[in-house]
Design a protein that fits this description.
Length: 317
């Protein structure tokens, strides 16, 4: 089946979204594969690209995985192009971030400069319209599911986007999702691989190496991409801002600590709890202090004559 042979019966219903134009127009054709994908009523993410070599671009709707399904449904022999994406990221000047944007205080935001008010300014060296980054703007998502979807998005050719003044869910698995939000008065799309790069910056800088995270990067070109919580049963046009921080069923991101710090904090907690117990029993305090002094003298276990076996080393002597 060739692209020009696809019946565009759904165009009449999509006209209100500005996606279908009169016959003979040089604008994009709209192709919707009959896969039952979510968001084919105009609420799904928009994808624009060529499915058949040398032929007109088409527009599909749905999540990243659904877009792939539609592409191969229309052209089982589809081969992704190897061309570099437009506006390829490259080193360049630093842009100022918006006031009030601040990542988690424990997040090491590479390439950002911390100002006197505690906020981070600038951006990771990347001259491709990257303007600002914010951590924890919404409920948390699972990094396992998010990483898998960002990887899939990074391989998707063509452009991903949304209608004017709207957000679209790009991917959703379990309780985690990716989003594209368009702040402009006109429809907007960008290279899908570039959107994936923006999302990767969030993953690198908002609670990296943790089980959960959320964040967004905003472009000076009028769009933002988000990652975090998602309810896959909700319509794909529900904006990520609806899922407030603290909601959802994914735990809050916690700062990463070294094993040494974990052990240190555990020791402090144990010491505090021990001090509280000793304060309630002075006689016990005397006995425990003696035991602790002896354990320091005999780190590999206490002689039986002392009468205080070292936990875990009773058979050592």
């Amino acid at each position: 089946m060739r692209a020009h042979q696809v019946v565009l019966a759904i165009c009449a219903n999509l006209a209100i979204y500005g996606l279908c134009l009169p016959s003979g127009s040089s604008s994009l054709a709209v192709v919707i594969a009959n896969t039952g994908a979510q968001g084919q009523d105009g609420s799904g993410m928009l994808w624009r690209g060529s499915i058949f070599p040398g032929e007109e671009e088409v527009v599909l709707q749905g999540s990243v995985i659904e877009i792939w399904d539609q592409i191969y449904s229309l052209n089982p022999d589809f081969e992704p192009p190897n061309a570099e994406p437009e506006n390829q990221a490259k080193p360049g000047a630093v842009h100022e971030a918006e006031d009030g944007w601040e990542p988690y205080p424990w997040t090491n935001v590479q390439g950002f400069t911390k100002s006197s008010d505690g906020n981070y300014r600038g951006h990771i060296p990347n001259d491709w319209k990257f303007n600002s980054l914010k951590c924890a703007p919404m409920a948390m998502g699972s990094m396992t599911d998010i990483t898998r979807n960002v990887d899939i998005l990074s391989t998707l050719p063509g452009k991903c986007g949304a209608p004017s003044k709207a957000c679209r869910r790009m991917a959703c698995v379990n309780t985690s999702a990716l989003y594209f939000c368009n702040d402009l008065e006109t429809q907007l799309d960008v290279d899908c691989s570039q959107a994936a790069e923006f999302l990767q910056q969030i993953m690198n800088n908002c609670c990296p190496n943790q089980r959960t995270s959320s964040g967004l990067t905003r472009s000076k070109e009028g769009f933002s991409v988000w990652l975090g919580y998602g309810n896959c049963n909700h319509s794909p046009d529900v904006p990520p801002s609806e899922y407030k921080l603290g909601g959802g069923n994914n735990k809050k991101c916690k700062p990463q600590q070294s094993l040494f710090m974990d052990a240190k904090f555990k020791w402090i907690i144990t010491a505090v709890e021990g001090a509280k117990a000793l304060a309630r029993n002075p006689a016990e305090e005397t006995r425990l202090r003696r035991e602790e002094r002896l354990r320091r003298m005999y780190p590999f276990g206490l002689p039986p004559r002392i009468g205080i076996p070292y936990p875990g080393d009773v058979d050592h002597w």
